Amino acid sequence: MSDIILQVNNISKQYRLGLIGTGTITHDLNRWWSRVRGKEDPYLKIGDSNDRSTKGDSDYVWALKDINFEVKRGEVLGIIGKNGAGKSTLLKILSRVTSPTTGEIKSKGRIASLLEVGTGFHPEMTGRENIYLNGAILGMTKAEIKQKEQEIIEFSGCERYIDTPVKRYSSGMRVRLAFAVAAHLEPDILVVDEVLAVGDAEFQKKAIGKMQDISQGDGRTVLFVSHNMAAVKSLCTRAIVLEHGKVVFEGDVNRSIDYYLKLDISNTLKNHKVFLNDEFSSKELVIQSFGVKSKNKSFNDPLHMNNQIEFEVSYNKLNKDSKIDTTIQIKDSKGNFILTTGSGIVKNLDNSKKIGEMKSRVCFDSDFFNSGDFYVNLLFVKNRKEVVLRLDDIISFVVLDREKDLGTWMGKSSAPLKINLDWKLDYDF
Amino acid sequence: MKAQHIKDDWLYTISAKHSLLDLNFKEIWRYRDLLFLFVKRDIITVYKQTILGPLWYVIQPLFTSVIFTLIFNNLGQIQTGSVPPFLFNLAGITAWNYFKECLTGTSNTFTKNQNIFGKVYFPRVIMPISVTISNLLKFGIQLAIFFCFYIFYAIKGDTMGFNANLALFPVYIMMMALLGLGLGMIISSMTTKYRDLTVLVGFGVQLLMYVSAVPYPVSEAKLKFPDYVVPLVEYNPLTQIIEGFRYMLLNTGSFNWYGFLYTLLVSVIVFFIGLIIFNRTEKRFIDTV
Q: Which of A242, A264, A286 is the endpoint of a domain?
């Protein structure tokens, strides 16, 4: 009980949507009038929960609603959630950039926040001068910075340019220098937004290593927000999952990540459909179900790049003397066709003599799809000539990054497919 | 008993509630290094990559004084007593400039710094205070130029001189800083939501100069202005400052302690009102700016 360093009690934050203009002044006057009469703010009673995709009926939304959690001293807490779940708002409140609408946060330590690296860098000043300025902005005293100056310069790897104005730096060097300053902060509680997604692979590795040192070696309390599940997994011990401004899950980091990944799938894309009441049928067949999953797992489990990905179609064949083949077409998130595959060209798959329920399956090797969203069309072809049933965008699925080792390249290559092929290397001695 | 103990342990609380005067001077003190680094930044970066550099500080008041002398003294026949009109105007403009720079430099604190304020917390009031301090350098340079001309005219044989009021010099500087800073903080707080005031600041300051006895002595204003304008000049704290400034340096015009204390009181009050409004705004402004 006594080692709780940060306590968040019923934090809520309300925002007004739309433009600030002439309409706002009437609201302000209204608000002021109710305060004069000693009443509650009339606009606090209304407001929708924050779901950006649906249209609400109120101009006010709750970006955060009744957030409660506690952080123990020395703990590294991950905060995960989709875009717009309220992560950044929570961080802004924690770092005192803005104040909550209701509720309070109690802290036993100094909080320093890293919502962005290089805040307050002045392009006309030299690297060294900017180290001092940036460090002071982040809450260090001059003496503290002086003590660490050499270490910071070494960590940044910008020694040669340190007395050159920052405007002559490449963007990568600027980021390196900025991160180096930030990494040498020593507050009681460190709040970190996704600052690790900067720099090249080598620097990312260095940055994550430094983060690990801070959290594990020095026993500092860290709140870490990221979309990078690999980083969250390796740095954090516990995590909370935010959705629509509410805490929907709190607990051990692995379970939190699983919860978050399932949330992502169930909310946006359907990777499995069961068709009842002959929803889609033709003279030849009635489709029963269609889905995609990781091989040997259930339809509810997330798909990772390193899983074998299996498509499964169940249908009821109605006529004898017609050969029915299944074809799937896969599109990327922009709607470009990236591949098509069908059972028609495979020998020994002749079902023309049979009727009744049957299941057609195809499995992709692991490391075939790159991470991203995919959409699937399903076609049934009769006797390799005639399309008897065509279902466009009938299911969709998300492939997630592999549960990879830390420190490898975390950027995403842009191609939809990322195929492992049997490469050969020839050379002469 | 134990629960009570834990409650008292919290270093600080972040909440929506705030009292009227919840200024955390201890925290501002803790960030004093930042204050000086901001001052340093302002000073070394203003005239980077200009050829004339700090000379620009000097050119502006000199040209303004020349224009004022031509229009008000040559054309408008305003009498400045035994003091050369050019020196009279230069004194007024030098003092006025410091107030003006403090006001305009701090009046856009929130809008100008929204990027940095939106990302990291430090006591926001550090920013306007640093502007006020770094403007002292500019003021110092302009004052030095004033003294150059002062010596020039003294050698030429014009009669003027300091008087004992010079001991109040630091107080006058403080009053100008407090007024400029106070008004600047009020304006910057009010412009976070409604930008209308920013339009006003530019020409408002210009107009204010003309009712603050910068290009004319108060005695002339009392003589020639219509009755309803005179109080506007007389009770304007800036008039008191400009007139007092000229009185102690050039021994011209008038001085009385009531006026001095009145100005001091107004400056302190304006500063504290500014500070309170600024503090209330800093917690929320990032949502509305």
A: A264
Residue of chain A minimizing CA distance to B14? A105
Alpha carbon distances (Å) from A257 to B20, B43, B46: 44, 50, 49
Q: Is residue A52 part of a domain?
A: no
| Test mutation, B33, B125, B285, chain A, max A CBs within 10 A | B33
Residue of chain A with shortest Cα separation from B286: A98
* Residue B273: pLDDT over 90: yes
> What's residue B2's pLDDT?
40
What is the pLDDT averaged over residues B189-201? 81
Tell me the percentage of chain A whose pLDDT exceeds 90.
11
- Whether the Cβ atoms of residue B148 and residue B142 lie closer than 8 Å to each other: no
Which helix (H) or strand (E) segment holds residue A248: the answer is strand A246-252
Would you say residue A303 lies in a domain? yes
> For chain A, what is the mean pLDDT?
81
In a domain, A231, yes or no: yes
Q: What is the mean pLDDT of residues A35-57?
A: 62
Candidate from B11, B38, B41 with C-beta closest to A109: B11
Q: What is the CATH number of the domain that holds A279?
A: 2.70.50.60
Asked if residue A322 and residue A260 are part of one domain, the reply reads no
pLDDT score, position A146: 93
Q: Could you tell me the two tokens for A232? A: 């969250």
Q: Which residues of B touch A106 (CB under 8 A)?
A: 10, 12-14
Position A127 in a domain: yes
Three-state DSSP at A237 gives coil
CB contacts under 8 A, A 278-317 vs B, are none
Interface predicted TM-score (ipTM): 0.82
Q: Do A284 and A225 share a structural domain?
A: no
How many domains is chain A partitioned into structurally?
A: 2
Residue A152 shares a structural domain with residue A277:
no
3-state helix, strand, coil in chain B (%, to 5): 70, 0, 25
Q: Is A164 helix (H, G, I), strand (E, B) or coil?
A: coil
A-chain CB neighbours of B121 within 8 Å are 95-97, 113
Residues A86 and A208 in one domain: yes
Among the partner residues A99, A122, A124, nearest to B14 by beta-carbon distance: A99
Domain boundary among A231, A264, A297: A264
Report the CATH number that the domain containing residue A106 is assigned in CATH: 3.40.50.300
Q: Which of A174, A67, A190, A99 is nearest to A131 (CA)?
A: A174
| A85, A242 contact by CB (below 8 A) | yes
Q: Among A1, A92, A106, select the one facing B13 at the smallest CB separation.
A: A106
Is A205 in the same domain as A282?
no
Q: Which of the two residues, B238 and A42, has the higher pLDDT score?
A: B238
Q: For residue A88, what are the domain limits? A: 70-264
pTM: 0.72
pLDDT score at A407: 46
Q: Which of residues A413 and A353 earns the better pLDDT score?
A: A353
Q: In this predicted structure, what is the pLDDT of residue A346?
A: 84
Residue B129 has what pLDDT?
Answer: 94
Residue A377 CB neighbour total at 10 angstroms: 17
Contacts of B117 in chain A (CB under 8 A): 97
* Beta partners for residue A239, in sequence order: A78, A251
pLDDT at B3 over 80: no
